[in-house]
Amino acid sequence: MVSKFRYSFLILAPLAMGMSLLPTAEVSAQVVGDATVSAQTEADQASAASQEQVNALVERAQDAAGKYGQTMAELDSLTRYNEQLQEQVTSQEAEMASIQNQLTEIEVTNREVLPLMERMVDYLESFVAADTPFLLDERTKRVAALRELMPRADVAISEKYRRILEAYQIELEYGSTLDSYEGVLSDANGERTVEFVRLGRVSLLYKTLDGGEAGYWNAENKGFVQDNTYVEAIEDALAVARQEGAPDLLRVPVPAPQESAQ
Questions:
Q1: How far, rounded to the nearest angstrom, does the alpha carbon of residue 143 sit from its chain's CA centroid?
Q2: DSSP per-residue string spanning 203-233
Q3: Distance of CA 5 to the CA centre of its chain
Q4: How many CB atoms lie under 10 A from the CB of residue 66?
Q5: In whole angstroms, how far apart are CA 213 and each of 64, 183, 195?
Q6: CA distance 65 to 46
Q7: In angstroms, how far is CA 153 from the centroid of its own chain?
């Protein structure tokens, strides 16, 4: 009896030992699994961190490349701008040189033109003084105004020249127009108000307002000559000058031609 029980015990003992080892194996497997998961997690985290670093490096590289491209574009733009500025500076320098040359030419021209204009005014003054004395006060004042204008620095040379030419043009037109005006005649007989009639520069006649006296300018004697035979002719000339009568032939005294002084 004893032997049977011992045998049974011997058979059951290993089984019992096997049963006792099963929980230990499961624990070991779980530990290994946890370690694997933990290692994988750490690896994933490390990989993610590495990827982030790579992404950051890529972004910095892209940003640096973008800034480099922008810098190069700005450099190219500045280079073109500087080239344009240089062209403008070169053009301005050339223009300044041209202006300087023009100023030099103007200075030379002024030295030549100013004396010429002074002589023109001198000649005009002499001409008015020697000419038939019609509108003498007006013409003398015009010459005096030119005299005052010439030394003024605030008036351009072109304006001075224009005014001189204007005075010459007025004098030229006197030679081909018929005109009448009222003025004062002063001679040996005293002063009296008369009506003057000017036929170009050919004749200058006068008559008193009451028609009691008439006469004409004698260029040879440089004085007025009383001649009442011209009263009717003067009346006709006055009517034409005032546009009160039709143009017609007028009988007026004409001075004899004189040789000009050489």
A1: 35
A2: EEEEEETTSS-EEEEETTTTEEEE-GGGHHH
A3: 135
A4: 10
A5: 111, 15, 11
A6: 28
A7: 23
Q: Is the pTM of this model over 0.85?
A: no
CB 238 within 8 A of CB 227: no
Residue 255, C-beta contacts closer than 8 angstroms, at least 6 positions apart: 202, 203, 218, 219, 220
- Supply φ then ψ for residue 221, to 5 degrees: -90, -5
Task: Report how far residue 157's alpha carbon sits from residue 21's, in angstroms, rounded to the nearest whole number.
Answer: 130
Closest Cα partner for 237 from 252, 257, 222?
252
154 residue type, one letter = D
Location of structure tokens 């030119």: 146
CA atoms within 13 A on the CB side of 238: 18
Query: What are the φ and ψ backbone dihedral angles of 153, each rounded to 5 degrees?
Result: -80, -20
Quote the pLDDT of residue 30.
66
244 φ/ψ angles, rounded to the nearest 5 degrees: -100, -10
Query: What is the greatest pairwise CA distance in the chain?
Result: 205
- What residue has token string 């009383």? 226
Residue of 176, 180, 170, 175 whose CA lies nearest to 245: 180
Task: Return averaged pLDDT per consecutive 10 residues of the chain, 262 residues in all.
Answer: 46 48 56 69 78 82 82 85 85 82 71 90 95 94 96 92 96 92 87 92 91 90 90 87 72 60 47
Q: Which residue has the tokens 């004085």?
A: 223
Helix residue ranges per DSSP H, the chain:
2-130, 136-149, 157-174, 231-241
Under a CB-based contact definition with an 8 Å cutoff, are residues 202 and 251 in contact? Answer: no
